[in-house]
Amino acid sequence: MRKSLLIVLSVIMIAVIVTACSGGGNNTPQNTNTGGAEPTETNTNANVNQPEDDGEKPVLRQLMQYNRFDPNDYYVGTFLKEATGYEVKYDQLPVENFDEKLNLLMANQEPYDFMKLNPIQFAHLASSGALEPLDELVETYGTNMKQVISESSWNGAKVNGQIMAIPESSASGLTLGYALLYRQDWLEELNLQAPTNLDELYNVLKEVKDKKNVIPMTGGKDPFQGEIGSALGWDYGLDTQFKEQDGKIIHMVEDPTTKDYLAYMNKLYTEGLLDAEWAINQSNTLIEKFTGGKAFMYREGWWNAANINNAMATNFPDAKIGILPYLKDSEGNASARASGGITFYIAIPKWAPNKEEAMKYLDLKLDEEIFKEATIGKEGVHHEVQDGKYFPILPIFDDQYNFGSDYLTGNDEEKYPVYWQARVRKNEFVQNYFETFQENGKDIMYYDALTFAPPIENISKHKQKLHKYVEDEFIKFITGAESLDNYDRFVEQWRADGGDEMIQAANDWFATVQ
C-alpha cells in the first residue's frame, strides 16, 4: 500500500511539473461524471446577498467525501446556487478504497476546482506538490473567511509557511464529549453523595460493590480515562496525547503524572472496583451492562443519551441516571477534556481551471446571511429561536438539512457552533446531556496541544502504531498483567519506536507558532 502510494505521488509530482512548464492545466478530464440530476427545488429570497453579476460565472466542480445522498439534488445545494449565482457540480469519493480513488484522480489531473479532504489526504497531497498555495488568493478574495476563521486554524492549514487549504474546524467547536454516568437511584438508596474527588470516588465504588453486588465501574479497551486522571493533573485522554508544559510539547508517556494515574486505576482494578472484563469489553457491552442493572458507573458520550435513557426506561422504569461533575484534584480544582480542531481541509489542485472563481465562491459562502441559511435554514421554516437557542423544526429540518454539513467549506468559528447546537436539540436527552457536559466543563477545559497543528509527517507515520502500543501497555499496567516497575522500560521502547521523532516534530512545529 505504501509503495503504491509513493508511485502515485511521484506521478502527481511529474504531472505538476509538466503542467507548470506548459503553462497549462487544461487537460481533458478522464472522468466527467458529475453525479445526480440538477436540483429542482427553489429557495425564495435566496439571492438577497448575491453580488452584482460581473460576467458569466463558470460551472465549478467540487470533490466531496462520501455520504449517502446525491449532493447534486439536495436542498442546500439548490440554495447555494441561487444565493451565490454559482453552479457547482459535485462528485463524491467512493465509500471504499477512497484514498486509492483520490490518488488516481490526482494522477489524472481531474480538473476539480476545489476538494474537501480529510487530514491524511491533505497531508499526502500537500507534500506531493499537488495543491495550490492559497496565500495570494485568500488575501485578494478572502474577505469573509479572513474575518471568521481564526489564526489558530489558518496556522493548522500551513505547510512550510504557506496556506495550502481553507481549514474547516469542528462543527461544535471545542466541546466536551464525555462524562461519567452513574445510577443516581442507587446512591440515594445507599444514602451516599455523588463523589467530587478521587478519594470519594474510591469510597463510593467500594460501598456500591459491598452493598449492591454489581460492577462498580465498567469500561472497555480504553485505558485513557481523562475524567478520572484529570483529578491527578493527568490532562490527557483518548484523543489528547500531547500537552504544552514549561514552554515545550510533551507526550503523555513522558509525564510523571501518568504513573500516578495508572497506579490509581490499578488499585481500583485490583480491589474489584473496575470491571474484570475491562480489557475485552466492547462499547455496546458497556451500555448493556449499565442499562441492564449490572454496572453502577461508566464513561459515556452525550450522543448516546437517547439510547441509554430509552433502554434504562424499558428495563428499570424507576431508575435515575446521574451525570457526574468533573472530579476535583487535591487543591479543589477540576479540569475537563475537550476535543475539536480542524476536521477537513478545502484545497485547490494545482491544475484547477477556475482558481480565482473558486476562491470567490468559497468566500461568498461565508457571507453572514448566506452562511446562516446554508447551515440552519430559514427561521420559522427550518428552525426557531427560544431563549437565544436554536431549535430545529421537524421533520423539515431533517428532510432538507440532514446532510447540510457536507456542503461546508470552512465555517464561521464563532457562530457555527451556536447554529450547530440545533442538531443536538432534536432529542431532549441528547440536548440535556450535551448542555450539561458543557456547563459542567465551562472555563476548565483542556485539549491536545496539537489540536490546531497541521498534519505533521513525522507524527503521522508513527502515531497509529504507537497509540496502539501505548493502549495495550496501559491496559496491562491497569490490570496488573505488567508491573509499573517496568514503566521506564516501556517509555524507552516507545521512544525508540518513533516517540522521540514525534516529540521533536511536535516541538519543531510549536516553535513556528510562538
UniProtKB/TrEMBL annotation:
Keywords attached to this entry: Signal
Q: Polar residues: which segments have biased composition?
A: 40-50
Which SUPFAM superfamilies does the entry mention? Periplasmic binding protein-like II
User: Residues annotated as region Disordered?
Assistant: 24-55
Output the Pfam families linked to this UniProt entry.
Answer: SBP_bac_1 (PF01547)
Q: List the protein's name.
A: Sugar ABC transporter substrate-binding protein
Q: Which domain of life is it from?
A: Bacteria
